Amino acid sequence: RPSRRIMSLHSRRRVLLGLGMAALAGCGSAPPAAPPVPGAPPVARQIAPGVYVMPGSPGSADESNLGRIGNAGFIVGERGVIVVDTGTSFAHGRALLAAIRAVTDQPVRVALVTHTRPEFLFGGTAFRELGIPIRMHSRTSRLMASRCETCLKALRQTVGETPLLGTAMYKPDQEFEATHELDLIGRPVRVLYFGHSSGPGDIAVLDERSGVLFGGGLLDAGRVPDIQDSDLEGWKKALQSLRALRVGTVVPGHGPASSSALIDTVERYLAQLETKVRGLVRSGASLLGVAESGELPEYEGWDQYDVIHRRNASVAFLRFERELMFK
Question: Would the CA dihedral through 27, 32, 38, 39 be positive or negative?
């Protein structure tokens, strides 16, 4: 594209992103909060009685945000705390724990990792240092073991060595295979697994008392969902299952807390991506042109559109082309 058009698109996307995130943020229990300052210590924001989110920064991981781009959260009960996702690094994990301690002196019983992304799991080393067990789906554990050494090396190059001091690979203390309820803190918390969806072991976490859903890799707000590890049909079925639940507020993996309407928003993006790319495959288009011809202007204002959506289009093209060939 001409450079002038790129600059104008970038300006428009920044404006649209700000407007879109403000619209998504209204969840009824609290006014929209400003996004966190990149690299600043996490602050726990209450979104329902006993339920808190510690927001990540928008954008991709870099030196300014220390790679802290994923949301984390926690649920406080009468007998303890359940943490959802552990942050990007050992230092980030420690900072999340300090933010929790600023809210409650209840002990942290377990930390759940919702999916295999660096910004959600590498803080686990700080939790394990204190004897807090890390719990994840067995398929997430296997995927983490197979590739996250490489992920950590790449993160060091992107963020720098100093912010990642003490960060290391680890094995989860607890694994599971299916949906279940955690009876640890005096309030019912359901761990939801729908099969291979946004990722092979991706889970969501529902606090049944408040109706707050932590969406993990299944739901992003104002940010393009990443299909790289997904099974698209499984993802669609998972979203249908989420829609049937009593969900009030959604804490996505990335982006501001939203209403349950976010489920429909993510589903619509996936449907439009599939329709667009299947049309390109049927027309005999070349993979080389998919990044341009697979544009979805409705989503240009979403965070990481230029990077993740273009990759999504290419990934989907290869999948649908292979499907057509073997069909």
Answer: negative
Q: Where are the beta strands (DSSP E) in the chain?
A: 45-48, 51-54, 72-76, 81-84, 108-112, 134-137, 174-176, 180-182, 189-193, 203-207, 212-216, 249-252, 258-259
Sheet holding 72-76, edge to edge: 45-48, 51-54, 72-76, 81-84, 108-112, 134-137, 174-176
Closest listed residue to residue 215, CA positions, set 267, 252, 263: 252
**Per-residue pLDDT, 60:** 95
> Which residues are CB-contacts of 144 (< 8 A; sequence separation ≥ 6)?
116, 121, 136, 169
pTM, 2 dp: 0.88
pLDDT digits (tens, 9 = 90+) for 277-323: 999 999 999 998 998 899 999 999 999 999 999 999 999 999 999 98
Give the residue among 97, 126, 124, 103 at the shortest CA–CA distance from 112.
Answer: 124
Rounded Cα distance, 200 and 183, in Å: 25
What are the pLDDT digits (tens) for 5-51? 333 334 334 333 333 333 333 333 344 466 677 767 899 999 999 99
Residue 201 makes CB contacts below 8 A (sequence gap 6+) with 115, 116, 136, 137, 138, 139, 140, 141, 142, 143, 193
Pick the closest to residue 220 from 64, 86, 21, 13 (CA basis). 21
Ranges of H-type helices in 135-253: 138-159, 232-243
Q: How many CB atoms lie within 10 A of CB 93?
A: 29
